[in-house]
Design brief:
By secondary structure, the protein is α+β, with helices and mostly antiparallel strands. It has 2 domains: 114 residues, 60s Ribosomal Protein L30, Chain: A (2-Layer Sandwich); 158 residues, Phosphoribosyl-aminoimidazole Synthetase, Chain A, domain 2 (Alpha-Beta Complex). Helices cover 37% and strands 24% of the residues. The protein has a 7-stranded mixed beta sheet. A 5-stranded mixed beta sheet has the order 1-2-5-3-4. The longest helix is centred in the first third of the chain and has 18 residues. It is globular, with a radius of gyration of 20 Å. The protein starts with 5 loop residues before the first helix and ends in an 11-residue tail after the last strand.
Amino acid sequence: MKSPDETKIIKTFQNRFGKKSRFQPEDVEVLKIKNAKFVVKSDMLVQSTDVPTGMKLGEIARKSLVSCVSDFACKGIKPIFATIALAIPRGFTQKMINELANGFRKSAEEFGLHIVGGDTNEGKELVIEVSMFGDGNKKMPSRGGAKTGDIIITSGPFGHSSAGLKIVLDGYKAESNTAKRFRNAIFRPNPRLDFGLKAVRYFSSSMDSSDGLAITLNDMSEQSKKKFVITSVPTENNVIKFARQNKMNFEDLVFCGGEEYEIVFTVHPRDLNRVRNLAKKMNVSLYEIGYVSNGKNVVLVDNDGLRVIKRCGWTHLRS
């Protein structure tokens, strides 16, 4: 019998929990207790599947927080508190624990949140589970709010982390400065928290892209019940050059990667200039990659015609 992948496992739990759980496929969960609303997100980092060779303990700590911060960012919600649960293998020295703790402290300061508790346990490898909490008493865009005519935008380019993993894990080559930039995309990802907090008022729909651009676009298209027409691939020349030198398709690096903590969002055309001006003030390089129309699927329109962009990216337990 074939083992289920991450997506199938999540759907199984959703079905078992039933409607009363209000379990929705969103970047964050909103809980209402009496008159107050709270935003909650949990994410897990496992050393063997989420930590590439060469990543320092402080960077590992930061990455475990980044995963949750990026989910808050795409909804325009400020994370306030976090709890951290650790499984630590035997052999961890006090110096290693200090490096991990310092990484959490510095990252919490960077993102303006408070770590208020957690748990520790012993495990065969390092595992970090982060739960983050914020104020949910404001309107929040969903993944499924895109309307016909909306413009599809990403908060940055794609392909850097995919190329970086090719270099770190598979030994592919790139020019020194290019390789450094690709590695930084893996070791020090930059969630768009400040931009998300200010630009969210213009989002008709939004989603974090860390599972891969193709997965993100398809999820938004399906939940919005609209066709997403992609007319421009959001990447930079260094990714295209890297792909050409290593005889690979640059579109695979862009659409089928992961670990890129950008915001993918849609805006009404009337708000486009406002978003552009805000991004310019904040030094955020937006990529206007297409538009929303009636229909279904995600399609790429280029010189070769029209192609459907299928789901590809990072899914745990997929064979």
